[in-house]
Write a structure and sequence with these properties.
The chain has eleven helices and two strands. By secondary structure, it is mainly alpha-helical. It has a domain of about 70 residues. α10 packs antiparallel against α11. It is globular. The chain starts with 7 loop residues before the first strand and ends with a helix.
Length: about 200
């Protein structure tokens, strides 16, 4: 295998990895994507939230979703042990429901909770989410020191001209105004990128 030197190595060919690759390509920065899969793999269940459209536009790929040949599903696609879509009738019914009722703003899993209110215990419906996500967005809100680190790191990243400064400014704005947890993860990725670049500068 021929030895090749890259400026950036991206680990993982998921949405974040591909977004990073598109951005680096736009600035002609040599890079390589490393992924566990050696070929394209269909991943049923992946979804793009509606508020991601501005980000997709900046990456130059929003047209793929707006193409008339692309038929979106405004609900969940469930597969178990197969790539065949199960319960098509349920999906068809879901597509007839108003999107604002299924995904009301700032109300997580509201439709699910209403649908199962007569079946699940109240403690189940009101329990806090459990998972392994890093609550970086919440930490930013609670720590002035962390906020200062983020501001300094993103300012230096903007000055590198490898990521559109407007993209960074919008991520910060959306973190403050829309969803701290969702956009906090994006900011975490950008901050780590800057810290990595600083640590490996020659």
């Amino acid at each position: 295998m021929q030895d090749t030197t890259y400026q950036v190595i991206i680990v993982g060919a998921g949405p974040a990895g591909l977004a990073a690759s598109l951005t680096l390509s736009a600035y002609k920065i040599s890079h390589c994507i490393v992924d566990a899969n050696t070929s394209a793999v269909q991943k049923p269940g992946d979804a793009v939230p509606p508020n991601a459209k501005p980000l997709l536009k900046q990456l130059g790929i929003l047209g793929l979703l707006e193409n008339p040949l692309h038929i979106p599903y405004y609900s969940n696609k469930s597969c178990w042990g197969t790539n065949e879509l199960l319960e098509k009738e349920l999906i068809d019914f879901s597509c007839t429901l108003d999107a604002n009722k299924k995904l009301p703003k700032q109300q997580l899993r509201d439709f699910f909770k209403q649908a199962f209110s007569s079946f699940l215990a109240p403690q189940t419906l009101t329990k806090a989410k459990h998972g392994f996500g890093l609550p970086f967005g919440s930490w930013m809100q609670q720590s002035d020191e962390l906020m200062a680190l983020v501001a300094q790191s993103l300012q230096r990243l903007s000055e590198r001209n490898i990521i559109n400064p407007e993209f960074i400014d919008r991520a910060i704005s959306m973190h403050k105004q829309e969803h701290a947890g969702y956009y906090g993860e994006l900011i975490w990725i950008l901050v780590v990128l800057e810290l990595w670049l600083e640590a490996h500068q020659r």
